[in-house]
Amino acid sequence: MESNKKKARIAGLIYLVVVITGIFTLGYVPSKLFDSNAITTYNNIISSQLLFRLGIVSGVICYSFFLFLPIALYRLLKQVNEDVAKVMVVLALVSVPITFINMQNKFAVLSLIADQDYLKVFSNDQLHAQVSMYLTQYDNGNQIASIFWGLWLLPFGYLVFKSGVLPKFLGILLMLGCFGYLINFIGDTLITKYSKWGIASYIQLPASIGEIGICLWLLVMGAKEKNIST
């Protein structure tokens, strides 16, 4: 029978891949390539196609590993409350097909920047506009996925808090992170200039600290060698 420490470190290793690839594809690549000006964004992607393509590959790796992460966590935390652990898995897995389908928007951008004869029917302004449109659609798809990126943290945080083998404060941060995701989704959807307020990153801070923190704790510290109890 596998020890809690081994289960925790397997989950931590999977989580580490998700965190690193997620930061790269959702944070680093957009910060280097995407701009509010459509022409600048188009030129950035043209001049740094490899980085844009690496962002796609990194995203595929991230979402593929995210298929296995809730299952690995379920094996560790199901003794706390199996029903809650099942809800955690379902809420996490729902986001995966959304993110994979959403990646099609980035492949559409690749089609628009390809050196193909059929693109000659479009003017430069039209190409710039279409690239921006597909990137906007990609952001919209991530907004939908973020509902479930948030929701799964509530049962996950609860299980961490109640486990007795993992730090309670990380469970609290994860549960707060759930509401951070949901607040940002509602804000972006209802308020036109919400992103310009500059508060979204602060609202999502508990989720970021909680997820990176639990990832490192699982990987480095593992979980206490005792039966998890409610």
Describe the structure in brief:
The protein has helices at residues 4-33, 38-47, 49-77, 82-102, 104-113, 124-151, 153-163, 168-190, 200-203, 205-221.
What can you tell me about this protein's structure?
With 230 residues, this protein is mainly alpha-helical. It has one domain (4-221). It is built from 10 helices and no strands. The chain has helices at 4-33, 38-47, 49-77, 82-102, 104-113, 124-151, 153-163, 168-190, 200-203, 205-221. α6 (124-151) crosses α8. It is elongated, with a radius of gyration of 20 Å. The mean pLDDT is 92.
Strand content range: under 5%
- Provide the domain count: 1
Number of helices: 10
Q: Which residues sit in consecutive blocks of at least 5 with pLDDT less than 50?
A: none
What is the SS-derived class? mainly alpha
User: Which percent range fits the helix content?
Assistant: over 70%
Shape: elongated
* Amino- and carboxy-terminal Cα gap: 21 Å
Q: Averaged pLDDT, please?
A: 92
SSE ordering = HHHHHHHHHH
Rg on CA atoms, Å = 20 Å
State the total count of DSSP E strands.
0
Major sheet details? none
